[in-house]
Amino acid sequence: MLTSHLIVAFLSLHFTAAQATYSNTSSSATSLPFSITPDTVEGDPNYTAPIFPILPFNQYAGNPILAPNPASNFESAYLYNPTAIVLNETIFLLYRAQNESKVSSVGLAWSTDGTTFRSMVEQEYDPRTLTVYDQTRLNRPIIYATEPWEQGGGTEDPRIVR
User: Fold this and answer.
1) For residue 103, is it within any domain?
2) Domains in the chain: how many in total?
3) What sign has the CA pseudo-torsion 47, 53, 55, 60?
4) Are residues 41 and 85 in the same domain?
5) Exposed/middle/buried for residue 78 (C-beta within 10 Å: 0-12, 13-18, 19+)
């Protein structure tokens, strides 16, 4: 519901500006064929529910769903700016992590319920089934600074699209 109101508020600001521009270009005060305001609610003939694959949003009482992990070298201090994608009913979350030295890297976590996330750091591994790939990802970010000019700050703000 809050998200709907934020979207409606944004559309209201956008179309109010568009309407003002439109009405200034015409000799008569012409308005758009619809009227969306922050007060627009479901049931209003001008209301269209936003399409979003994981609605409805409900505040989770167990927040935060991810927190810094003092036992991890790369995400011991802060977690920021996540981005998510749903693939085969699993939510994958890329997030910016900082260590105590404030060097940023990108971590990966996943969830099938949207609230309980596992990460590469927390994942339990069976040493009998570890592959070379698995061993390179234990307690490490998935994207990290590799060039000398990246070392001061690291990598930040992941984005993912489908």
Assistant:
1) yes
2) 2
3) negative
4) no
5) middle
Pairing between β-strand 104-111 and β-strand 78-87 as defined by DSSP bridges? unpaired
Please tell me whether residues 144 and 83 are part of one structural domain.
Answer: yes
Domain that holds residue 12: 1-49
- Bridge partner residues of 105 (DSSP): 97
Pairing between strand 104-111 and 90-98?
A: antiparallel
Closest CA to 154 of 92, 85, 80: 80
> What pLDDT shows up at residue 23?
34
**Could you tell me if 142 and 102 lie in one domain?**
yes
Per-residue pLDDT reduced to its tens digit, 16-57: 333 333 333 333 444 444 555 556 666 677 766 666 566 667
- Is-above-0.85 flag for pTM? no
pLDDT 10s digits, 76-131 = 999 999 999 898 888 888 999 999 988 899 988 888 998 888 877 655 555 555 55
